[in-house]
Amino acid sequence: MKTNPPTWLVPVVAIFTLQTISAFLSRLIPIVAPAMSDEFGWSGSSIGYLTASNAVGGLAVLVAGSALLRQIGGMRMLQLTLLLGAACVVFFLYPSLVLVLFACFVMGMSNGAANPAGSEVLQKFSPPGKRNLIFSIKQAGVPLGGMVAGLLIPLVIVLAGWRIALFVCALVVLLPTLLTWRLSPALDGTAGKKGRLFAVPTRESLRMLRVPLAALADNPGLLKMSVVGSLFAASQSCWFAFTVIYLVDRLGFSLSLAGAVFAVMQVGGVIGRVALGWLSDQLGSATATLSIAAILSAASTALLGVTSTQWPLWAIVLLAFVAGCSAAGWNGVQIAEVARRSPPRLIAETAAGAGILVSLVNIAAPTAFALFITATGHYDYAFICAGACSLFVLAFLPRERCGAS
């Protein structure tokens, strides 16, 4: 007897695919940047500023994109930002830090669109008993995109140079975006509607700028869970931005080997996000699951700061994997919990509000990290401070009994 696939399968696959290539687009920055910086004579700490600019692009969409998301749909907005980001890789060819910062800003816009779009679509299609798992599968696209970037980009750089690698990356982004293009009207619920991509700002559209953050005040646990995400983001953003340059500059790794370690961290993120989502559904408690992730994130981030050339390769690889499972594995559970606590009519807005807090940290943490390294040269203290932020998660997690989620 033939059975129909579950109704949530197509939405999950589509959002997962776009989430993966959005992450791939952002992760190419810290991987290409060492080779580009060597040729242009930029310092290694400049990667922190490029990563921060990428986060500013995501923040801009989260703050100002609510009206456009309502008008054309979340998936469509995500697809459009991906196309713009792919086009902007051309600016990396010019030895101008201003142009590259602008390109990073535009490439970050898809990150800002990904969570509101994914939350709105998946909350409509996810069965309650599988919500954490489905959201975590979607979020597993982030480290998967990083894993592909960590393996593919260094290989192409070695074989053909970093300029060719940029165009390969643009093609990797374009193809899945175009393949999913026709799905967005059905998943966004905009089929048969005519929407404009651009509209003249009105008093109402300006009022919408404050909606995402205001929406977090709807219930006490919603704001706390959003702060939890921002604290986790401190460690995650520093791992993503500085792992490759740290391994190359301080531990003497080749770019290919550093990229492989980065990819292992992303593998851990894929496994960790799905596993933590499953565990959260089994325990019925997002709080317990995120507590485990916070402790492992703090420990692994602090340990990265004290690694040295005497450490065996397997130990560094294991550390990267554990960090992937924890420092980069929390997102699905946290985002699902924000959606669960949100009023149904404001899911996209609360997802955007929580994302704004995360984006602010994604801007501040790499920038502060880069400034600290420039001033002191101490990666160890910087990573220890980033790890301490994960421990503060334990103070902000809403207290509730198992079965509440």
From TrEMBL:
Matching Pfam families: MFS_1
Domain Major facilitator superfamily (MFS) profile: residue ranges: 11-401
Stored SUPFAM superfamilies: MFS general substrate transporter
Transmembrane segments: 47-69, 81-108, 151-175, 227-248, 254-276, 283-305, 311-330, 351-373, 379-397
Assigned keywords, A-Z: Membrane, Transmembrane, Transmembrane helix
Keyword Transmembrane helix among record annotations: yes
UniProt-recorded Gene Ontology molecular function terms: transmembrane transporter activity
Protein's recorded name: MFS transporter
Lineage, opening ranks: Bacteria, Pseudomonadati, Pseudomonadota, Betaproteobacteria, Burkholderiales
